[in-house]
Amino acid sequence: MSDMITADLVDLDLSADTKEAAARSLAERMVAQGRVTDLDGFLADVAAREAQMPTGLDGGIGIPHCRSAHVTEPTLAFGRSAAGIDFGAPDGPADLIFLIAAPAGADDAHLTILSSLARQLMNADFTAALRSVPDAEGAAALIRGDEAPRVAGGTGAVIAAPATDDSAPASDDSALVSDDSASASQNSAVAPGAASAGATAGSATPTPTPTPAPAPTAAPADSAPAGPFRIVAVTSCPTGIAHTYMAAESLENAGREAGVEITVEPQGSAGFTRLDPAVIAAADAVIFAHDVPVREKDRFAGKPTVDVGVKAGINRPAELIAEVRAKAARGEATAPAPAGRGAGAGTPVERTGDSTEGYGTKLRKWLMSGVSYMVPFVAAGGLLIALGFAIGGYKINKAPSVMDHFLWTQADSWGALLFQIGGVAFGFLVPVLAGYIAYGMADRPGLVPGFVGGAISLTINAGFLGGLAAGLIAGGVVMAIQRVRIPAALRGIMPVVVIPLISSAIVGFLMFVVIGKPIASAQKAMTDWLNGLTGTNAVLLGALLGLMMCFDLGGPVNKVAYTFATAGIAVSDPGDSAMKIMAAVMAAGMVPPLAMALATTVRGKLFTPTERENGKAAWVLGASFISEGAIPFAAADPLRVIPSSMVGGAITGALSMTFGATLRAPHGGIFVVPLIGNPLLYLVAIAAGVCATTALVVLLKGLRKPAHGTTPTETADGGTTPTATEPKEQPVAA
């Protein structure tokens, strides 16, 4: 870790009073050392990570961290605050603040070093030494592992001592605390779960000291298994850098205190090493402490399980161990893996969300689950159909099957081949949509009834709306079946026979007999309404779709507009209005990245060097209809980029509808211009939106004042980059 933190990256008198100010103060030191290229862009990434989950931990620790394209090398800055700063920890403000900056493509070795720091934070002597170290050089040495904390003379005064192995980086076992100093560590102001860390961290071969579990949750003595109680655990967090490894260390420390054998599999950004199947098989219980889905979760099915967020693994590991032991004593276990949902298992949507989310949020995620799996079918099938029309003409949809009639030398035969392959791919749209909506609700058991319901929707001409309904019904039916208590002897046939049979029969009955006909009527009414749009109504619809495409640049609102458009052309003979809507949606989606690329070209000094590099790539991304090409710009400056993009998108969508441009292909950008009706006016509509967005972005950025504490510095190529201004002189890097 020697190259990750130096004395220049340490502030032992951090005067910030908010977490944002603390992050900025520490990030400015990184900028001064050339380790961060864009202060505001990096801080936007830090804020985005903080929005996912507060980074404050019990024991007075704050660990704001992120991966960012604005970081040149893995870097760690440390600040010590006398007053404390609120990072959202339950026990109050943090006085030890670690800002971790990892490049977007950080290699495994650097991430492993960062994980070692995270583990050290669970060591009471390490945090106590940082609170008392008198100088920045000493603090940096402690964090690097050049010096190890130890307790002097049993008096409780923590000092820094040279490490016994200067070549070894700090790791989860590098505390080097003698057994006779354990009592002193208990007096440190640290988290309850972390307080026990110092007692055994320094022993080469720690001897577990069993402590009785609390009476309400203790397992009956006659049910205790022979030998120590065995637990396997998995920890993971969104970034996979800090919380993942801190939870692992905390659980291991608590396990030693409780006298249980606990083996943890941290699933971090650097990947993970799978637990030995024999270890899992021998385990008596499982703990999941995670904020992202547990990878290969089925390995742990059939055992008593506690499933919580990663912070619970850090803050209350002893409670989790007691809880899972109590479950084992009561004989509670998750269902076998093939049965899908079990106690504490969760669905794909639930595993990526918060247990307190409302049904509105879950519904949106369920629908997006189906849409995300459907989009590749849309792109592949739609482009094949469009190429078929381009090669064989607009009557190619009347061609006979290529199985019966195919001539190698005729262009019409090749056009028919592409059209018919694309038609088959398009035929999966509604079943895939329905199947994966049900999957998002009920995991794998929802796939069969979801696909069946989607196929029935096509059969009865209920279309896209029918697919939405079928997916939601299928997921709900499977979830209801899974709540029924099933004897252990029958669990093996549940996923193979019982759930597919019962759920498919119920979904089929409802789609064919109860709701299918009303939905089909609604689908036909919507199609007729679209085909009847003319004049002002069509222009307003184009503007609305343009706003939606540019609102979140590939997010849920963008996907709603895109799915609405593709649903219209997903029929064998789409109407003229449906093709106009598809054209307007694609045109508007091209505007944000193209506008950012143009803005970085005409007024480069308003953008950082990194943004100018991103602008070069945005030309290609925008031309290919990949709206996400503008995300780096929106993340760094959302209040200027997103509204400007929405204005340009609305103009382009409205003009495209006004010009009557049509499009059969659901993707492709400028590469499918030959397939567009009125292509020249279509390009004019795109150019108008791009120019409008560019002008607004340049205007708004030109009015922006430099951020507090930074001054724009002219670069060799005419651009500017923020340069931190320090309150006192700093060494100048060579």
Detailed description of the structure:
With 734 residues, this protein is an alpha/beta fold. 51% of the residues lie in helices and 11% in strands. It has 27 helices and 16 strands. Strands 1, 2, 3, 4, 5 and 6 form a six-stranded mixed β-sheet that branches. Strands 10-9-11-12 form a four-stranded parallel β-sheet. Strands 7-8 form a two-stranded antiparallel sheet. Strand 5 and strand 6 form a beta hairpin. Helix 22 packs antiparallel against helix 23 (576-602). It is flat. The two termini are 21 Å apart. Mean pLDDT is 77; it is low at 151-225, 337-345 and 707-734.
Summary?
With 734 residues, the protein is α/β, with parallel strands linked by helices. It is flat.
